[in-house]
């Protein structure tokens, strides 16, 4: 390959259609890139070389015969390692599942595969998705491709817990990647890595085959370089699924982004509570600049209040740990997960298997969740948290009665250094990193993170748009307009 690679799915599809690029040749180049240059970033846990080449050969045959399956046919895509992929190991970056090879695929990957997508590999993550930096994996931390240095501990974190997927896209290896979003785990790394990160409405995309963390908040997320690519992937994976009772039963109407976008009459809300402690000056200036840009284009920009925002992170933490304690109970060394060599008793086998299979973060959340769920604490913590969660959802309902969308920061700053990030505990870092993102999961509403500009340190700064339930069509339309105005410069995909 002796020319610049296509940057978007549309360009790639056109190259395949014109025969200027072949899916097999392109996939071989992608696999070399993932294995060599990007290896130092530690974005991938496993490269699926054999299956990728087989999928690419099949795609090439379809392109040559004129029977392509759609815009994703032959496109290289990465999948976070908590989505089951048939015959490809799925570990959740944990020792507990390091030998697990699923016999079935998650619905989201199954639909992408049926659309002709090529699976490059499984991406790195925080163990079981419990983190906000992709630093707690048994395979080591993922390094942000925007880092000034990759040596020692002076690299920038990728964000979490879908940091591997974000780096796979940002570095140009893949056109899209699947992440999961429980409290911002798609949008947070999207922000730090300068890519688009979408959390769809809860129930719009099937969770079947996504190894659960918090069932009531988990949503498959999408990471791409452009809003249009994000819409293309969403169109491929969204819609009812008989294997997931939480998906909506109404057929999904594909998102169609207009070429010409008018913002006159659009109402944008600026939540005052998101102007919080720890918000960097650069993020604040970026937030203000984009709000002014929207207003200049004919939108009405007003302040709104979401009073329970300050309580949201605490409620999220309680509910997260309660559901974690329930979901992790299945990993007992007998039915699921790592089995210890301990054979003194069944109880000892359970204890040793879980002690060896889980890291400290997972153990801490399990123990804390069990504490909250004790009979004497149930009403005081879990039940009260559910009540406040309802109030948080009502905050959004009231806000969206006045405005069409909310514009907020995604993260409070650009990507921190790994050396600084690990000085804080997992709990403290999640409270900071998820502050702006987790309320959307509490309300179940869609949200998208968009890269806007580079900081003084040449690191991406992003903003977040949130909308009412099932407003993906309009949400992505406004996001595309912002994207066209800011013209964020991604890292170029070259022939290295």
Summarize this structure as a short list of keywords or feature phrases.
12% strand; single chain; eleven-stranded mixed beta sheet; ATP-binding; alpha/beta
Please list the strands of the largest sheet in the order they lie side by side: 1-3-2-4-6-5-10-11-9-7-8
Radius of gyration: 22 Å
Computed structural class: alpha/beta
Sheet with most strands: 11 strands, mixed
Q: Which whole number gives the mean pLDDT?
A: 95
Distance between the termini: 10 Å
Outline the low-pLDDT stretches.
none
SSE order, one letter for each helix or strand: HHEHEHEHEHEEHEHEHHHHEHHHEEH
Percent helix, as a range, is 25-40%
Fraction in beta strands = 5-15%
Shape: globular
In DSSP terms (H or I, runs of 4 or more residues), the helix count works out at 16
Family: Belongs to the amidase family. GatA subfamily.
Catalytic activity: L-glutamyl-tRNA(Gln) + L-glutamine + ATP + H2O = L-glutaminyl-tRNA(Gln) + L-glutamate + ADP + phosphate + H(+)
GO molecular function, one term: ATP binding
GO biological process, one term: glutaminyl-tRNAGln biosynthesis via transamidation
